[in-house]
C-alpha cells in the first residue's frame, strides 16, 4: 500500500510522486510534498475548539498539582498559553501557582 496522502481536492487515494510534487491522476491536482507533511499537530480543547499559542483558556475541572497541596480550581483563567507536543501539551503560568503544564482536555477556549 502507498503511504502517500490522499488528494486534498477530491480525496482520491491514487496519488503519485513526480519529483518534488504529488499528483492526483483523477482530478489533475498537483501540490508539493513538503506542504503535505508540514501541517503539524492540531491541539483542541474539551469542546473541540482548536487552540493556538497565545490563547486564553479556563480550567474545567479541579486539578491537583503534583508534588504539592495546591489545587487549580474550576474556572481559573490561564492567559497566553504555549502549545507543545507531549502528554501535557499546554505550557503556561498560573497566577498564584507559577509555571506548569496542562492537558488540553481539561481546558476550554474563551
UniProtKB/TrEMBL annotation:
Protein YjdM N-terminal domain sequence ranges: 4-32
Coiled coil: none
Domain (Protein YjdM C-terminal) ranges: 44-109
InterPro entries: YjdM (IPR004624), YjdM_C (IPR013988), YjdM_N (IPR013987)
SUPFAM superfamilies hit by this protein: Prokaryotic SH3-related domain, Zinc beta-ribbon
Family: Belongs to the YjdM family.
NCBIfam families: phnA
Protein name: Protein YjdM
Organism annotation: Hwanghaeella grinnelliae
Amino acid at each position: 500500500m502507498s503511504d502517500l496522502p490522499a488528494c486534498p481536492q477530491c480525496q482520491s487515494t491514487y496519488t503519485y510522486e513526480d519529483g518534488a510534487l504529488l499528483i492526483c491522476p483523477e482530478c489533475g491536482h498537483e501540490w508539493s510534498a513538503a506542504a503535505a507533511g508540514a501541517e503539524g499537530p492540531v491541539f483542541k480543547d474539551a469542546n473541540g475548539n482548536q487552540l493556538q499559542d497565545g490563547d486564553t483558556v479556563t480550567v474545567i475541572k479541579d486539578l491537583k498539582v503534583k508534588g504539592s497541596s495546591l489545587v487549580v480550581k474550576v474556572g481559573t483563567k490561564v492567559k497566553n498559553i504555549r502549545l507543545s507536543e507531549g502528554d501535557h501539551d499546554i505550557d503556561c503560568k498560573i497566577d498564584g501557582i507559577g509555571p506548569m503544564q496542562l492537558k488540553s482536555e481539561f481546558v476550554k477556549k474563551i
